[in-house]
Design a protein that fits this description.
The complex is a heterodimer of chains A (314) and B (274).
Chain A lengths: L2 E12 L2 E12 L3 E5 L6 H9 L6 E6 L9 H6 L1 E4 L11 H11 L6 H8 L15 H12 L6 E5 L7 H16 L3 E5 L3 H4 L5 E6 L2 E6 L1 H8 L3 E7 L6 H4 L9 E6 L2 E6 L4 H10 L3 E7 L3 H8 L5 H4 L4
Parallel strand pairs in A: 3-7, 3-8, 5-6, 6-7
Antiparallel strand pairs in A: 1-2, 1-4, 8-9, 10-12, 10-13, 11-12
Helix pairs in contact in A: 3-4, 8-11
Chain B lengths: L1 H16 L2 H18 L13 H24 L4 H6 L1 H6 L5 H34 L5 H32 L3 H29 L7 H4 L4 H11 L21 H25 L3
Helix pairs in contact in B: 1-6, 2-3, 2-6, 3-7, 3-8, 3-10, 6-7, 7-8, 7-10, 7-11, 10-11
Chain lengths: 314, 274
């Protein structure tokens, strides 16, 4: 499969500030990639480079077979959907009018407008002015805008901000359908638990550098983060804290949450041994396994950064 | 070309919807009818005086109002969309920055033209019906010239507004600069010229040429020169006489006053970072 997005040693400098530092990245067709990082990590810069809003200071960016900031831009931009992080659509227009305006500018069949409004669940509010929309409705209007013209590549900057859980699920269902049609999706987010089940790979950026790139499994392995095992007993009489306090393996740490609940930090390869012992321990009622989440991975990979690099400088 | 029309159409509909067109037309019509009806008040009378006086007064009104209206209408054309985030989005669409700005100019230009035509047009009809003994042909010619030149003057200041709008990054700053531009061209320039006129004792043949440095003076020249009887009331602009100040030449200059700031705005917009 050919790469939809190809970054070769891409650096972007604004005066003294290095926004992006020698980034290599290949994204193939039909892939959902999450861009993760603090403010100022380079997520938005990466998106702007893909969109051709910025040109690289060094290195080469190729998107759908051409440089996005050159003559290729015109063709590219008709096959691309983008949802910016902060956008306030024309308040005095109705949702349908806004979408119709963008459809004309993108030279897209305008019958799509009503279909898309229905698809994002705004069909009933299509004739209302955007002024009256809630934050979630505005976000969904933005998504409908990004979906105009069946894009091959979708760039979504913080797409789930302001969406309630139901709308978030509906949003990712849409993303999944698009991926099945071969659309490549790039999304940035800091609501990590929200995006985790839906992404193929994650790119963790920090201070403009690539800290890690891979599927969640790969990243978990790279980080070798321990998993958390929670064991809960009937009552304090089970005295779990006492029973589970000592382990042969020094890497396992036990911490009593309260009288009848213990939290164990366990390396991945010791998982089964721990589980065996837990099931043999009398009085245990429930065991819960918590694999390291993106949140943990993220904290792990960005631990090496100085506070200034992690800071909110944008 | 299609994109330009789409953008222009949207701007124009915005203008109708948020009642810019209606508001401008009403203000112009109201003040114009007032001036026509109470034109004799200065000389202690009441009612319509002469066509010449009325037209000079209307031109003076337009010099003050039209630039202000144009600047207010258009100062946030780019910076407003930038603050809303829609500019960033539009720049990722298959349209060029030139198309975007020209489309907006066309839309705003039409709003101003429609409102001016409506406002002064209504005033013209009221004068024609209400005032006795007005030569209709002269009235129509005078009002036509006034409306046409007012529209050009408005476009000049829309172009200035765009130049401001692409240069700054905050809406509030753009609004402030727009007022400064209005103040300079409409008030300060006249005072400065007057001071020069008084202080220069000999020579001063070059003074009338300074008038051409200000689009509002060009506007006045067009209206006054186009109307022989108005000359006695023309005040400062009466220093301008000669072939260089013929209406055709001055109109061309006024058009140049549109093209230069608009061209600069386009250049700046195309070369600035997103």
């Amino acid at each position: 499969m050919s790469a939809v997005i190809d970054f070769q040693g891409v650096t972007r400098r604004d005066a003294e500030l290095v926004r992006l530092d020698a980034l290599d990245l290949q994204v193939s067709e039909g892939e959902v990639l999450a861009l993760l990082g603090h403010n100022g990590a380079g997520k938005t810069t990466t998106m702007h480079l893909i969109l051709g809003l910025l040109s690289p200071s060094a290195g080469r960016v190729t998107v759908l077979g051409g440089a996005p900031d050159g003559t290729h831009a015109e063709t590219l931009r008709r096959r691309l959907g983008y949802l910016p992080e902060n956008v306030r659509f024309y308040e005095q227009l109705s949702g349908r009018e806004v979408l119709d305006y963008f459809a004309r500018l993108k030279r897209v069949d305008r019958r799509q407008v009503n279909e898309l409004l229905d698809q994002v669940g705004l069909g009933h509010a299509a004739s209302q002015r955007v002024k009256t929309y809630s934050k979630g409705m505005r976000q969904r209007l933005g998504l409908a805008q990004a979906l105009l013209g069946d894009p091959r590549l979708l760039l979504l900057d913080e797409p789930t901000t302001g969406l309630d859980p139901a709308a978030t699920r509906a949003f990712f269902d849409t993303v999944r359908r698009l991926r099945e049609r071969g659309c490549t999706v790039l999304l940035s987010s800091h609501v990590l638990p929200g995006v985790e089940p839906y992404i193929d790979r994650a790119l963790i950026l920090g201070g403009g550098k690539r800290l890690a790139l891979g599927s969640l499994d790969d990243l978990r392995q790279q980080a070798a983060l321990p998993l958390i095992v929670q064991a809960r007993g009937h009552s304090a009489e089970a005295n779990l804290a006492h029973h589970l306090g000592k382990w042969d393996d020094p890497r396992i740490e036990a911490r009593a949450v309260n009288g009848h609940e213990v939290e164990l930090t366990v390396p991945a390869d010791a998982k089964l041994a721990v589980l065996r012992r837990l099931t043999d321990t009398p009085g245990i009622e429930d065991i819960e396994l918590l694999p390291p989440t993106l949140e943990h991975l993220y904290t792990h990979f960005s631990a090496g950064l100085s506070p200034a690099q992690r800071g909110d400088a944008r | 070309m299609n994109a330009i029309l789409t953008i222009a159409g949207k701007e124009f509909r915005d203008g109708l919807r948020n009642r810019w067109v209606l508001a401008i037309a009403l203000v112009l019509a109201f003040l114009a009818v007032g001036i026509a009806g109470f034109g004799a008040a200065a000389s202690g009378g009441l009612g319509f005086t002469s066509l010449a006086t009325t037209l000079v007064s209307l031109a003076t009104l337009a010099v003050f109002l039209i630039p202000l209206i144009a600047l207010l209408l258009a100062y946030d054309a780019v910076v407003g969309e930038q603050e809303a985030g829609t500019l960033l989005l539009l720049l990722t669409y298959p349209i060029s920055r030139t198309q975007l700005l020209l489309g907006k100019f066309l839309g705003h230009g039409l709003i101003l033209a429609a409102a001016t035509l409506l406002g002064f047009g209504v005033a013209g009809v009221v004068i024609a019906v209400g005032a006795e003994g007005v030569p209709l042909a002269e009235l129509a010619a005078g009002m036509g010239l006034l409306i046409g030149s007012s529209i050009l003057l408005g476009w000049v200041f829309i172009a200035f507004a765009y130049l401001i709008s692409v240069w700054v990054t905050e809406k509030a700053r753009a609004a402030g600069l727009a007022l400064v531009v209005w103040f300079l061209f409409v008030l300060v320039f006249d005072l400065g010229l007057l001071a020069l006129l008084v202080s220069v004792e000999r020579g001063g043949d070059w003074l009338p040429w300074l008038l051409l440095l200000n689009p509002t003076e060009c506007f006045r020249l067009i209206n006054l020169a186009g109307f022989e009887a108005a000359r006695s009331y023309s005040g400062l602009t009466s220093i301008a006489e000669g072939s260089a100040f013929r209406p055709a030449v001055v109109t061309t200059l006024l058009v140049a006053w549109i093209l230069v700031p608009l061209g600069l705005a386009l250049l700046r917009f195309r070369h600035r970072a997103a």
